[in-house]
Structure formats: structure tokens, C-alpha cells
Amino acid sequence: MDSSSLRAVGWARTLPLNSEVKSARDWARRHLDALGWTTTAPETADAVVLTVSELVTNAHRHAHSSAQLVMTCDDHCLHVSVHDRSSEMPTPRDADMERLGGRGMLLVDAVADTWETRPCPHGKSVSACFHAPGAKPQTAGSQRTPKD
Fold first, then answer.
1. pLDDT tens for residues 14-25?
2. pTM greater than the 0.90 cutoff
3. DSSP secondary-structure letter at 37?
């Protein structure tokens, strides 16, 4: 196989506005189980599930939208992406002890290796990357760089 080839697997799920975020977490956990991440990298698997929960919650609560959840895994990363119908980009806010909520993107920033948001037709997509167990972070030619 050509070294420039990419081998990846992926899954997608639509989560209507009235669906429970728990179903998104359970769905993600089953796929992480199938990849072996829950046994080989349980802390990373927990971080992925937390990210799924936060991104789907943001789509439902702030975008008032269904969430299109996509997970793809290649030899380097597991990418978690959530698309919603709002064009408003998420921004981490300072934690406020007086306010309930508002910490979701701070959590994603803390647990994901990288994350980004992109405008899309009819909304936006927020994606987080988690390095695969035992994978070396990509460097040359990559748009994704690990956090310090």
C-alpha cells in the first residue's frame, strides 16, 4: 500500500433536538469499544465521550438544532465532528462561579489534542482530534498540531 494512502473508518448519526445527549455518549462509547480504545486508552476514550457530550449539548442548547455527529478514525487520530444549523462560532468563555454552564468549550479545549470550528453551508462544524493510542502526532504537512 502506498505510504500516502489513508485508511480510515467512520460512523455518523443524527441526533434530533429532542434526543437525549446520553444516547450520543452511549453511541460513541460503543464505537470506542469496537476500536479497543476503552481498554487500550481509557482516559482518551473518556475524553472523547465528554467531548461528544459537550458538542451535542451545544448544538441542542445554543444552536437550537439537531446535531449531525460524525466520528472518523485513521492511523493517527480519532476525529469527532458535530454539525449544527447555527452560523455562530463557539468560543471558550472564562469560567464564572456565578453562572451555570458555559464551560463546555473550555472542557473540549482541555481534553482534545486539537479542536477547530469551520463555517459550513447552513451552519457550522466543530471538530476535535484525539491521537490514537500509540500514534505519533503528525507534524510535517499537517494542519493539526498537538497542544503544548
1. 999 999 999 999
2. no
3. H
